[in-house]
Design a protein that fits this description.
Layout: E1 4-6, H1 8-18, E2 21-24, H2 28-33, E3 35-36, E4 40-41, E5 45-48, E6 51-54, H3 58-65, E7 71-75, H4 80-91, E8 96-100, E9 125-126, H5 135-142
Parallel strand pairs: 1-8, 2-4, 2-7, 7-8
Antiparallel strand pairs: 3-9, 5-6
Length: 143
């Protein structure tokens, strides 16, 4: 079954009204630069000196941090990584995974006809996160 994809506003409503957790799958530096308020950071990829590389702990940490029936909205920069992560999670049995289209910064699309992201929609943004919502905090919680 295809992953359900929602707009930034629908993602916010799922978090605020239906108890979903917003999981930001961007790298730690991207998350630190700004993220959806209340988001939890579990990077699908890590930023390194030679570009992005797979986070080999992603699936193990997600499996330990969230039950398979957890209500999760996944977001990234433009919507690609979060859709990839949502497909991975759904394929291993996560049942309530939703992907936020347009990500945090929006998707460019051809000729500027992309989808606006969380930030562009003026939704709540933070540069701070409780320690337990950072990548290091999530890892510490599941160890």
């Amino acid at each position: 079954m295809p992953v359900r994809r929602v707009s930034p506003e629908e993602a916010r409503d799922l978090v605020e009204k239906e108890g979903y957790v917003y999981v930001d799958v961007r790298s730690v530096p991207e998350f630190s630069a700004g993220h959806a308020e209340g988001a939890v950071n579990v990077p699908l990829l890590h930023a390194g000196s030679f570009g992005m590389s797979p986070n080999h702990e992603f699936m193990d940490v997600m499996d330990k941090a969230f039950p398979r029936d957890a209500k999760l909205v996944l977001g990234c920069r433009s919507g690609s990584r979060s859709l990839q992560a949502a497909n991975i999670l759904q394929s291993v049995g996560f049942t309530n995974v939703v992907d936020q289209r347009g990500g945090f910064e929006g998707s460019g699309g051809f000729f500027g006809h992309g989808e606006p992201g969380w930030r562009q929609k003026g939704l709540p943004v933070s540069r701070q996160a409780p320690p337990e919502n950072t990548w290091d905090g999530v890892k510490a919680r599941v160890r």
